[in-house]
Specification:
The structure is a homodimer.
Chain A: H1 8-22, H2 41-52, E1 67-70, H3 71-75, E2 80-88, E3 94-95, E4 98-99, H4 100-113, E5 118-129, H5 134-151, E6 154-163, E7 171-181, E8 197-200, H6 206-214, H7 232-241, E9 247-250, H8 255-267, E10 270-274, H9 282-291, E11 304-308, H10 310-321, E12 330-336, E13 343-346, E14 352-354
Helix pairs in contact in A: 4-5, 4-7, 7-10
InterPro entries (chains A, B): HypE (IPR011854), PurM-like_C_dom (IPR010918), PurM-like_C_sf (IPR036676), PurM-like_N (IPR016188), PurM-like_N_sf (IPR036921)
GO biological process, one term (chains A, B): protein maturation
GO molecular function, one term (chains A, B): thiamine-phosphate kinase activity
Chain lengths: 367, 367
């Protein structure tokens, strides 16, 4: 057969083919198949239907292998670029208060925000298990889209892989993000000084407990929901009134205890926590007592730990309280010069104990 | 018990604790456990021992939740930032000519390079299956490190997750990357014009065939190795003599056919390939004939497709041939105005057939 473009019957065939191929791709399958990861037609349709239509923005819809932005625009917003990544493997995919999609956006937004950066652009890379209902993926993508809008960021590029049934558990997401750090902001775990106040924006342990309950392995019912939320707006508000914040971090996997241990080691200082000041819901304490867990190590997904000089502490605290994401903010501890690298907890009974870095594993696949 | 820092016995205890915790973390386990993904001590040791020591650079070793760079340095190198991501799920992890670690670096380096960008910084996020031998992870990290050095990029931040045995297949890697696009370079799948020449830098199908053979499902032995290589230097050389290149892309998953279909649709042009000009190894053709595969759809990991005006074609071709990554470069096709959106292949017998976008799946987990 010799197909020549001059033949009119053939031209008509070509036109029909082109129309079919240009049509906005639609996924007709009800479940993910290996073809959706092949790089071919099925994958293009999946990307069009689930991701591009959901995350609709001009950079993504170019469908180049990379997104690109003018550096001149970035440099107007600050003098440094922040760059971060996280993979999300939380089980179950949907849980009280949130889901893996929202988590994958907020988690990376928060990793940028705690450097003081304004989060701007995120990637979205998914690993799908063959057999995953397409409807699940659609719900997760819609949730990512809503979270992206809420956080004011754009999803600009992505990747889709499919593995055989049993080679992954349903759905894993990776997001990487970039943001711009404003001039004059210098937030680092290495900046902490004795005398600094330790401030947190609310209750700890809600996310970890919500996941634990959602797994259904405990015959418990509670109202506890994940605290998953973006923190960039709260951070911006704090930096507006106090650009001299020493350190900030969101207390996620490993909990408050892990973040404070990282701080103590990085700045070579001690940290003393006041147990009675740390906000923990009664239900969270109850679940912890039953299971022998410690709320200090439970994961959070919307908790900001702020280290600021004693002089600025009250100002920062009242500013945080005026923000919806910080209304339950409180001072929970102080930085001391000795013992360096150690976190101490002054218990409600007046005794002091060491809060070490988490040894072993409390709760796998929490984020 | 009341631990007071004034007690000298306690102070000595604190000092010992601090020494232990400051010691460069070493992984003593032989296999990955859930604790390595907990956010606690085991994870910090794993990151120190496997990643930070391997990828040693001052940005990563800060161990903040995000890396940061001066925008002023970036803007000296160009006017646009390129940003990309890919997850890597290739099976097996090690195969003739390369492995998942090298692939995860070169794949993302190449996605940046084909925009004309100089690749600069990469993230590294791993999802590990409980029970993975630590030695495997160490080999993969060493391979990533060697590839990063070879490509002149830095791995600046990362993430580690561990899932239960059976919830992932050994090891998945995600890398995201940023680079800077030099002023005056404007490479896009939308820029292609009728008359353009289609150039490729060498043999197609080697990576796909190497993986297929490595899986051991065929009783075949060949010398075929993956073509996994970074393409940034070849791209830089091409742009140096011809900044007006219209489009470039690396032909990975979905093969040469997929890239050319994407090009044809994006620029609304036709593309005619000359079968006799397309370099395919005899062994690759042999494997394809046995299995009913088509080399045009087989994955590559070091193949650059360049679309350039007819006037610049010879100059670009000879420049590519002078570069080690382009020594087998050749012109394999031409861009035609009609039929738009369609790729045609002029076969060795003189007939023409349509090379459609891949339908279904040739080979899962190829990258």
């Amino acid at each position: 057969m010799n197909i020549s473009p001059t033949n009119s019957a053939q031209n008509s065939l070509f036109q029909k083919m082109e129309q079919v191929r240009r049509r906005q791709g639609k996924v007709r399958d009800t479940h993910i198949t290996l073809a959706h990861g092949s790089g071919g037609k099925a994958m293009h349709d999946l990307i069009d239907d689930i991701f591009v239509s959901n995350f609709d923005n001009p950079i993504l819809s170019q469908l180049e292998d990379q997104a690109s932005f003018d550096l001149a625009n970035l440099i107007q917003q600050g003098d440094r670029l922040a760059f971060t990544t996280d993979s999300y493997v939380v089980d179950p995919l949907f849980f009280p208060g949130s889901d893996i999609g929202e988590l994958a956006i907020n988690g990376t937004v928060n990793d940028l925000a705690v450097s003081g950066a304004k989060p701007l652009y995120l990637t979205c890379s998914v690993i799908l298990e063959e057999g995953l209902p397409v409807e699940i993926l659609r719900r997760v993508a819609a949730s990512m889209n809503a979270a992206a809008k809420n956080a004011g960021i754009k999803i600009v590029t992505g990747d889709t892989k499919v593995v055989h049934r049993g080679a992954a558990d349903k759905l894993f997401i990776n997001t990487a993000g970039i943001g711009v750090i404003p001039r004059g902001v210098n937030i680092s775990a290495h900046n902490i000084k004795p005398g600094d106040a330790v401030i947190i924006n609310g209750e700890i342990g809600n996310h970890g407990t919500a996941i634990l309950i959602a797994r259904g392995e405990l015959a418990l019912e509670t109202n506890i929901e994940s605290d998953c939320q973006p923190l960039h707006s709260l951070v911006e508000t704090i930096l507006h009134i106090c650009p001299q914040v020493h350190a900030m971090r969101d207390a996620t996997r490993g909990g408050l205890a892990t973040v404070l241990n990282e701080f103590a080691l990085s700045s070579n200082v001690g940290i003393r926590l006041f147990e009675e000041s740390i906000p923990v819901r009664e239900e969270v304490n109850g679940v912890c007592e039953i299971l022998g867990l410690d709320p200090l190590y439970l994961a959070n997904e919307g908790k900001l730990v702020v280290l600021v000089s004693k002089e600025n502490a009250d100002n920062v605290l009242s500013t945080m309280k005026s923000h919806p994401a910080g209304k339950d903010a409180c001072i929970i501890g102080e930085v001391i010069s000795s013992p360096p690298g150690i976190v101490l907890l002054k218990t409600v009974f007046g005794a002091e104990r060491i809060v070490d870095m988490l040894v072993g594993d409390q709760l796998p696949r929490i984020c």
